[in-house]
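Box S1 | Example of a co-folding query
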Amino acid sequence: MYKSKYLNDVFDGVKKKYANEPEFLQAVEEFFDSMDLLVEKEPGIEKNAILERIVVPERIVSMRVAWVDDKGKIQVNTGYRVQFNSAIGPYKGGMRFDPSVNLSILKFLGFEQTFKNSLTGLPMGGGKGGSDFNPRGKSDAEVMRFCQAFMTELFRYLGPDTDVPAGDLGFGAREVGYMFGMYKKLTNEFTGTFTGKGIPFGGSLGRTEATGSGLLYFASEMLKEFKKDTLKGKRVIISGSGNVGKHAAVKAVALGAKVVAMSDINGFIVDEKGLDVPLIYKLSEAKGEYTAEYLKVYPTAKFNPNPKEMWNTPCDIALPCATQNEIYIDNAKALVANGCYMVVEGANMPTTLEATRYFIENGILFGPGKASNAGGVAVSGLEMSQNAMHLSWTFEEVDKKLEDIMKSIFKKCHETGAKFGQPTNLVLGANIAGFLKVYQAMVAEGVI
Ligand code: NDP
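Box S1 (continued) | Returned holo structure for NDP
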């Protein structure tokens, strides 16, 4: 129940209309929590029906993707692109390949992406896409055929000034390459329509590392501002060992922290003396699964087949970097009881609303994903700039720009929270700061 009648009316409508989209409703509710303080101060929001409009994607396309597997059998999946909001720039956001993909998940991701992209300060609107295709266990040839089949329909909706997808869960450099290749062939154009591309065909140095590295730059700013401290010697636990988790671990170690536990979907390994992150990186790059090999080298490390139990590990900082809704209220309580005082989201919405509220109410420093994991899309924005200018920056140049962008995002969130009397509430700061620019653009662009 919000203080504002307008907010209650809009949220009731959203709840009724999208009752079968729980992840989307969760993202909207978290965002509306922050809007309660703003809508009365800004009557233009209600007058221009901004919230009614901002919760509805500008366009959703969904398509049949038929392809032939290695045994010659015809397979059918569904592909989607949710073009959420283009008020401040072309649609921009990743593609997810996972059997769980549905419109509720893609709409929550596209909704959050709109505010995340706004926070970066770069001219990018919000979008998200993907398919219920499961790349696990598929051959490269199968993944290629699927990507090509998907693109033969999707290409109509993309373009460097229209919609620029990138990677996400289950969608890495290999998938970007196959989809970009088919896009190029169908349009007869070599443009920066995908980001996260390989370096030989227009990718940016530093993009692969950007989300994980950016997360740690953001975490450093939180520690510096709120605790006058650094990452040195801090015990960190990380869920997910994919693109985000792995690079977060590498950066955490580079900044002096000790990674004591890491998980993937099969379980987690823990070693209070600190994990050998370069070895994990090497093993997972080579084989994907790293646990068995790692335990051979470090027999004192422990393996637990239930990834959720990792949240019981004593630590200073938790970085959820796997997927949505990983930290429930019981996990949040266990983290706090075991000494964790800072949670920074590398994944999108990995913390349930109840757990988020618990962290904030209990004074835990909390970095919301739409701010703290914005480093990936920020460097995607830099990749678009390099493509448009036909040049490439060095890794060091990109990394420095990333660090500056993450510092500036933190500052925006902190200062906006402070304006509303809650300087440590970065959820509030991120939602309001991300929203204001989109709101102003929507008013200026009229009712469209
Ligand atoms: P990847 O597919 O590269 O990695 C996901 C990792 O999470 C894998 O190690 C996977 O394990 C693991 N995992 C999946 N489900 C669970 C679970 N329930 N418990 C524990 N581990 C799990 O994805 P990304 O790293 O790219 O993305 C991770 C998250 O970060 C997503 O929420 C994504 O939206 C978000 N994000 C990603 C960005 C990017 O640049 N890639 C940018 C911003 C946000 P396994 O390999 O065993 O399946």
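The chain has a mean pLDDT of 97. The two ends are 30 Å apart (CA to CA).
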